[in-house]
Amino acid sequence: MKDLLRAHFEKIITLTDSEFEYISSHFTHKKLIKHQFLIQEGETVKNEFFVLKGCLKSYMIDSDNKMHVLQFALPDWWISDYHALYKQVPSSLYIDPVESAEVLVISLEDKEKLCNELHKVEHFFRKKTNLGYVGLQQRVLGLINTDARDRYEQLIKQYPALFQMVPKQLIASYLGVTRETLSRLYKNPK
Amino acid sequence: MKDLLRAHFEKIITLTDSEFEYISSHFTHKKLIKHQFLIQEGETVKNEFFVLKGCLKSYMIDSDNKMHVLQFALPDWWISDYHALYKQVPSSLYIDPVESAEVLVISLEDKEKLCNELHKVEHFFRKKTNLGYVGLQQRVLGLINTDARDRYEQLIKQYPALFQMVPKQLIASYLGVTRETLSRLYKNPK
User: Fold this and answer.
1) Cβ separation of A60 and B116 shorter than 8 Å?
2) Interface of A with B (CB under 8 A)
3) Measured between beta carbons, which residues in chain B are less than 8 angstroms from residue A88?
4) Which of A32, A42, A103, A160 is 20 to 30 A from A77, comparing alpha carbons?
5) What DSSP letter does each residue of A12-75 carry, written as one string?
6) What is the pLDDT of residues A79-90, one digit of tens each?
7) Residue B30 has pLDDT above 70, yes or no
8) A49, A105 contact by CB (below 8 A)
9) What is the pLDDT of residues B67-87, one digit of tens each?
10) The complex's ipTM?
């Protein structure tokens, strides 16, 4: 299962076998069943997760008990509550799998240690964070663009695999539209 | 004016005088008058900007010609269209000062060079991007939380200085509320 992690690192940096062995020794493997939380609101967050199988979602629950999806994470993606992780404040999010899933877990402490020990690992994580930042920028632009059809078309274009893996109800929550609006968008493509 | 830049780096890393001289030699100083664009929609983006004075805003213009503010940048903050910069696609944003402003400019090419040459500079920018990511995560949560009062209170708490520097109309655009709704929030604090 660590082949996926190595391929993931080697998209950006080159690693010797012994370097990869050393890096991967800081990860632990975890299987999750549906509804098994990785993070719950109010908790302290110490870890970051690399998705091997399945799809995870991070979301908030508002004061009316309504769920709002912040992010989906498919295989080869990272997920955590980064606000809670980096600022060491209690989590404002829940993270759990859409169906069953498998992840590799690394603690913030070990990630920082690896970044400190190996310049190229620091380079890798800077580049990954840049891409995460860009993804979030697009997420904000999607949210402030008031046209639901544009948001929907952009999501299909950006992440086609999501539509196979995630129930329509969660896609609607991510897009900030009702289930009925989403059905209309499906039935009447541009 | 480069004292602010040095202090900014030294919040995270320690630099010798010669290291800082070398780093700062990659920045150029730029004064901006109101409405002078740093970035316009459709342009290629090659640079990132560190704010010395004033306040910059990045925003999109939607198909109804309505402005939506993505981000404000006060002194000691960075701003660019990172999607356009990192993915080398045309910008979807405009960036200009709220009033006059001063920035330091660094090209992506020079930033990558510095990160490659000096591990601690790479460390610095990884940490800064982490914080930028966290800021955007909070921005998304603010947008998907439907309660305008919560969004308003969170912004006041997070960035009190904004309310002195930025016209109410731009604050309303950032929060995604009308000017009238914002006035009601001002007049009736919790």
Assistant:
1) no
2) 60, 62-63, 66, 68, 70, 81-83, 86-87, 92, 115-116, 119, 122-123, 125-126, 129-134, 136-141, 143-147, 176
3) none
4) A42
5) T----HHHHHHHHTT-EEEEE-TT--SB-TT----EEEEEEES-EEEEEE-TTS-EEEEEEE-T
6) 999 999 999 999
7) yes
8) yes
9) 889 999 999 999 999 999 999
10) 0.89
